[in-house]
Amino acid sequence: MSRFFAGGGSDSDSESSSDSEVVARPAAPQFTFSDEEEDVKRVVRSTKEKRYEDLSNIIKNIRNYKKIKDMSSMLTSFEELTRAHTKALPVITKVENGVTPRFIIRALAELEDFINMVWEDKEGRKNLSKNNSKSLGTLRQKFRKYIKDFDSDLKKFRESPDAADDDEEEEEKKEESESEDEQHVAPAAAKAVSFKKEVKQVKVEKDDDESDDSIDWDMDSDSDESSSDEETQYTSIRERFLKKAEKDDGEDAENKKEKKKLQKDSKDRLKKKRAEDDDEGWEVVNGNRSTSAEQPKMFAKDAEIDVNVVINKLNEVMAARGKKRTDRKLQIEFLRELRTIADTHNLGDAVAAKIRFNIVSAIFDYNPKVSEPMKLEHWSKLLEEIQALIKLLLANDDIVLSETILEENEEYETAPYKIRGCILTAVERLDDEFTKLLKECDPHSNDYVDRLKDEVTVSSVIEQVVKYIERLGNDTETCRVYLRKIDHLYYKFDPNVLKKKKKELPASTLTSVDEMDRLCRFVYAKDQTDRLRTRAILSHIFHHALHDNWFQARDLVLMSHLQETIHHSDPPTQILYNRTMANLGLCAFRHGNVKDAHQCLVDLMMTGKPKELLAQGLVPQRQNERSLEQEKVEKQRQMPFHMHINLELLECVYLVSAMLLEIPYMAAHEFDARRRMISKTFYQQLRSSERQSLVGPPESMREHVVAAAKAMRHGNWNACSTFIVNKKMNVKVWDLFYEADRVREMLIKFIKEESLRTYLFTYSNVYASISVPYLAEMFELPKSKVHSLISKMIINEELMASLDDPTETVVLHRSEPSRLQALSMQLSDKVTNLVDSNERIFEMKQGNFFQRGGNQGYNRDRQNYRNQNQNQNWSGNRRQDNRENRGNRNQNRDRDHRKQHRVEFEEKAE
Fold this sequence. Notes:
Blueprint: H1 11-16, H2 36-39, H3 47-68, H4 71-95, H5 102-120, H6 122-127, H7 130-146, H8 151-159, H9 166-183, H10 187-190, H11 195-208, H12 213-233, H13 237-240, H14 246-279, H15 307-319, H16 328-344, H17 349-366, H18 376-395, E1 399-402, E2 417-420, H19 423-440, H20 446-452, H21 454-472, H22 475-487, H23 495-501, H24 512-526, H25 530-546, H26 550-560, H27 562-565, H28 571-590, H29 594-605, H30 610-613, H31 628-636, H32 647-668, H33 680-691, H34 701-713, H35 717-724, H36 727-732, H37 740-763, E3 769-771, H38 772-779, H39 783-795, E4 801-804, E5 809-812, H40 819-849, H41 854-873, H42 878-885, H43 888-909
Helix pairs in contact: 3-4, 3-5, 4-7, 5-7, 5-8, 9-11, 15-16, 15-17, 16-17, 17-18, 18-19, 18-21, 19-21, 21-22, 22-24, 22-25, 24-25, 25-26, 25-28, 28-29, 28-32, 29-32, 32-34, 32-37, 33-34, 34-35, 35-37, 38-39, 41-43
């Protein structure tokens, strides 16, 4: 408004001119016009500038959204960025020769770091809103898919992230040149420059030159003076818009040269000042720490370095351990510098061991959350420090590192050296960190394999600690370190054990079974706590079962009586017990002990949660069955993937064992109403298959077992073995066994035997006699084996028959009742049970109603009546008497007797 009305005094006028400016304006022209329309030229931008500007604006928005963690807006901006980059691809291909600009790669790298940081912060993710949480998952998924095309560019950027972006440098130079051109325009044109341009000009000059404010103020005052002079020098509008003289152009060129010279001089003065500041010893202060006094100071240049000075400085550094504002990374750096100083002045191995032990402790403290694993760079440094510390302790016999030594009793100058600390605790924590690192990795990725390679290093560290602890002679610590060694040994299969059994190796060869036996026997003898002994026994059983030492493993289980007291143990020990019983069941199955295998696995499989009981994963639960805290604790107990037991193999062994036991039992007790299920899980699978209206060919492992069970019920061993042993089942289950061919042969032999028993139970009522050679031919078994099976059935009274040796036949003496007869007997038994229960209910009601003295006489008379009725009517055959006693006549008579006795009882009571 001030540009158009001479007398106006608005805010814009005050901004464009100085506050102290007082100008007398002529009264003739009541308004003036701005030169902005004439002086500002239209700028034609190239396609590259347009596309790059769009990308820059989107990247700027993404950085703003990162500050406030607005995931929804960030997802929208990322989609806009992908579309803008697609539009800019022709320009990039033409101008940049297909190389993606560095500022785009920088933005993608920053976004990747931000997404990973937010995703790893599990507590922070829980606090996000539902919309932001959903947008984070979608953004992470889309970004990981989109970033694959920029892998090589990102890798190069990660190598040198601090390098400046080429496009940004060009833009800065361009802006600087534009700002110089704009600030040196003629006084009449300077008035038309917008406020936005002025701010940008000052900012560029501040960033580039960081000069004093006086230069800018001089420039502003010059421009204001020129504008005021311009407004006063014209008396009419016509003179104001006339073309300027040529001499003005010469004056403007001279003004430009002078101002450029002033700017160059200011830059030189600034560089000189910075150089002087660097010479004076200025240093950059970390903004995270409030004061520099919190940092422990190293020694002065002229200080005398000895053992006491170094130990005091070490105590000073470690005194800040655990405090709120302690920089853990800086603390580790100070300790390493202190170790370097101690090595330089040759202060001895004892001081070096003390410092290294404190470095190990500081690395452990670097990770504040105990439930989360440490970073990989800290893990590698931790391994190096512990290996160097143990090597130092083993090389010096006169250094004793123990937690029983008090701080005032430490000795660093004269042998024997005494240091307070516990190397065993450090190694135990190292082992726990290794387990957490494994559980954090994806088990199906190469990262897990890379981390698993560190187990060789961890095992060697434990071996070295075993040597050191054995040298100290402390039985308690020896048991603890032995158990750590057992934990890394018990689940590993050693083929030399089986070769030694087959006498392919000399008897003096030491195997893992011999090593386990030595370690566990020491723990059995010296341990003072039940937990270590229990875990040693379970690990010993597991290792024996893994190498098919069935009898040794079984005897250890029976002698230890762990199954009676294991429910009092801690959860990790109970998990180890479940793993041991599962492996023992597999061992029993490999040895052909089907019943023992079923007994070992039944408690584990009947719950329906073998995955959780073996700590191999969590099954999704219904609402409110497991809280977040419980789920977090249970996830910490999970076993690493390489220690898992194949659940499909375990379930198949259990179902096959149940089939070999349940099908003959069902055939033998088909019409028995009091039949009990041997395996509830197998019975449910069988019943669910029978309820299906249409059953197709088997596909899964369970369907194969159910189809085999149905074939066995009819005595068809060939179809049963085909369903159990085939190409698909071999790949899924049987090829996972050691010596799989032997297991398959044993399984087919058992199927033949149990199919024979099922056939005899099912069809014995059809035959009067059966030929033994015919049975041997039908089931492809030797005659001796058929003879043995039938003899056992006759001895156990499972089959009412006799063997005729001259004719080699089985003579059946009594046939089983028909189906109608069996159902009739079941009905009579159920009716009998119903009547007895009704009588008991009636007696309870009568006893509650009549609570006076005549109650005893009534019960006595009723009991006499029942005894008399039993003596008269329940003699002879039980089934025939049951049918007669349940007739209408007996029911009426019993009812009359009850009424008569009730009347007599009431008369007595009155």
